[in-house]
Design goal:
Order of helices and strands: HEHEHEHEHEHEHHEEEHHHH
Distance between the termini: 61 Å
Helix content: 40-55%
Bound molecules: S-adenosylmethionine
Radius of gyration: 21 Å
């Protein structure tokens, strides 16, 4: 079994299996052992942990996870990678389960039940960037028992998760992440640490799940419907964005009354509201329904 995390062994495996990178799956494999050590450290993986890895690729980070965790579940969409993982790079480990599936179609709750008796798991991944947001939102919104999510994402996306109102990067993702977790950027990773080299820099961000959300709302779905609608039409005032939103059926007058009670301007935009203000708005609108 080759130890991955360096260019020589990565190229050897790719050639042995005549593997061609699939752009559509966001395949950029890590080739830097130092960065891999730092990710495992940042995630705080220890021998009692059950870890879910999304997109193991040829198994580079999976090898590190298998060395440190009790149990690893690795979900990979590309069936061409499965023989490499099963017969080669992960064949020495008996604490890994490889699942050939699209993470967005998988019942992760059932996996947590099966592999960790429903107790919180850690998610560690070098994510395919084209589906970063749906993966994170899917894990949170389906209430998967989670301790933390430590993921490599595009540097800009990591920044977007951390910011508050008044910045151009503030949006639905910032609010959703901060509702469910405390985000912390752990390290930045240059493009030279991947094969093939992406056009962007990356960052590892750790999302530590809150025990309880920082705000209380009567209906979580309504909160996120309102947030999404507010940012869908970013240039519109909040009132117009919500009144035009399909799917949530809000009366303009109801939004105006809520803003008046909250002491906010009728011309305010969604991007100026804090999570606390979105929660208060949800409370008023829920009360009027
Ligand atoms: N973990 C490896 C590493 O660090 O070298 C590979 C990371 S690569 C950025 C992303 C991986 O996710 C690829 O192996 C890709 O095939 C896989 N992937 C892409 N979309 C996926 C999906 N919907 N479900 C599961 N895996 C996916």
């Amino acid at each position: 079994m080759a130890t991955l995390g360096n260019p020589t062994n990565t190229i050897a495996i790719l050639q042995k299996y005549q593997f061609n990178f699939q752009k559509k799956y966001g395949q950029n494999f890590l080739i830097d052992a130092n960065i891999l050590e730092k990710i495992i450290d940042a995630a705080g993986v220890c021998e009692t942990d059950c870890v879910l890895e999304i997109g193991p690729g040829i198994g580079t980070m999976t090898q590190y996870l298998c060395e440190h965790a009790r149990e690893v579940v690795a979900v990979e969409i590309d069936r061409k990678l499965i023989p490499i993982l099963e017969q080669d790079t992960l064949s020495a480990y008996d604490n890994v389960t490889i699942i050939n599936e699209d993470i967005l179609k998988l019942d992760v709750n059932a996996i947590v039940q099966d592999k960790n008796n429903g107790k919180p798991i850690k998610v560690v991944a070098n994510l395919p960037y084209y589906i970063t947001t749906p993966i994170i939102m899917g894990l949170f919104e389906s209430h998967v028992p989670l301790d933390s999510i430590t993921i490599m994402v595009q540097k800009e996306v990591a920044e977007r998760m951390q910011v508050g109102p008044g910045t151009k990067d503030y949006g639905a993702l910032s609010l959703a992440v901060q509702y469910y977790a405390k985000p912390e950027v752990m390290l930045t990773v240059p493009a030279s640490c991947f094969m093939p080299r992406p056009n962007i820099d990356s960052a590892v961000i750790k999302l530590i799940r809150h025990d309880k959300p920082p705000v209380v709302v009567p209906d979580e779905k309504l909160l996120f419907d309102i947030i999404r609608a507010s940012f869908n039409q970013r240039r519109k005032t909040l009132v117009n964005a919500l009144a035009n939103a399909t799917g949530i059926r809000l009366e303009k007058e109801s939004v105006l009354r809520a803003l008046e009670k909250m002491g906010l301007s009728f011309t305010i935009r969604g991007e100026a509201l804090t999570l606390e203000e979105f929660a208060a708005l949800t409370q008023y609108i829920y009360g009027e329904r």
